[in-house]
Amino acid sequence: MPEGPSIVILKDLIQELHLGKPEVLEVTGNVNNFDKDKLFHQKVEDFKSWGKHFLICFKDFTIRIHFMLFGSYLINARKKTPLKLGIVFKKDELNFYTCKVDLLEGNVKEHYSWENDVMADEWNSKAAIKKLKDKPQAMVCDVLLDQQIFSGLGNIIKNEVLYRTRIHPLNKVEDLSPVKLKALVTEARNYSFDFLKWKKENTLSKHWEVYNQKVCPLKHKIDKKELGKTHRQTYFCKKCQKIYS
């Protein structure tokens, strides 16, 4: 599943085409939960990302693309995989595959708050800490994947942030000191931007300290277990990462 930084890369790639506010000249694909003709001859107001969602914003509605586990896209190219949604402009085309596509009525700001997008300029770390404190019994391995607190964070970032902060994934929020809570929130954003940089360089996996690793940087054995209510695969070092309860 693409994490927030990968969606930012898509947004940047499209904005580099200098499309301006392009008019939709053709709409294709097998999406069937809304009338595709609604896009025809409409002008795109903006391309945005929110966490793991890619947003194509029109005047009175927004197309939301969620890539789920196996989604993909091509710009100015096509492949044989069944097309979910294809949008053709005068000089360029965007094609989306194996993804979830929805149409959101009204202004996009009615649906999203960018203060909980870890990569947005509007990111609000104080609000994130407050939301964490409102879930004292939640395990940190779960709250880092809560898109209403850390939109854009996925399993890779979760594992790496917990190792960076030396926090064991089975800690509850209430077990963490104010210093540790602040460190968790700070590193969630910091690692997301590191992820973006390494992803663009095609060196992301070379920087993993625990994710998909056998030993940590200090040569301790890495444990791999499905933890938390999310049951997501979690990599951690019992010697480096502390349980505070």
- Strand fraction band? 15-25%
CATH first level of the largest domain: which class? Mainly Alpha
Structural category is alpha+beta
N- to C-terminal separation?
A: 32 Å
Order of helices and strands: HEEEEEEEEHHHHEE
CATH-level-2 architecture of the largest domain: Orthogonal Bundle
Number of domain units: 2
As residue ranges, the low-confidence spans are: none
In the CATH hierarchy, the third-tier topology of the largest domain is known as Helicase, Ruva Protein, domain 3
Mean pLDDT: 94
Number of separate helices: 5
Enumerate the strands of the largest sheet in spatial order, edge to edge or round the barrel. 1-6-7-5
Q: Radius of gyration, Cα only, in angstroms?
A: 20 Å
Shape: elongated
Quick one: biggest sheet? Answer: 4 strands, antiparallel
* Helix content class: 10-25%
What is the β-strand count?
A: 10
InterPro entries: FPG_cat, FPG_N, H2TH_FPG, Ribosomal_uS13-like_H2TH
Family: Belongs to the FPG family.
Domain Formamidopyrimidine-DNA glycosylase H2TH DNA-binding: 114-197
Keywords: DNA damage, DNA repair, DNA-binding, Endonuclease, Glycosidase, Hydrolase, Lyase, Multifunctional enzyme, Nuclease
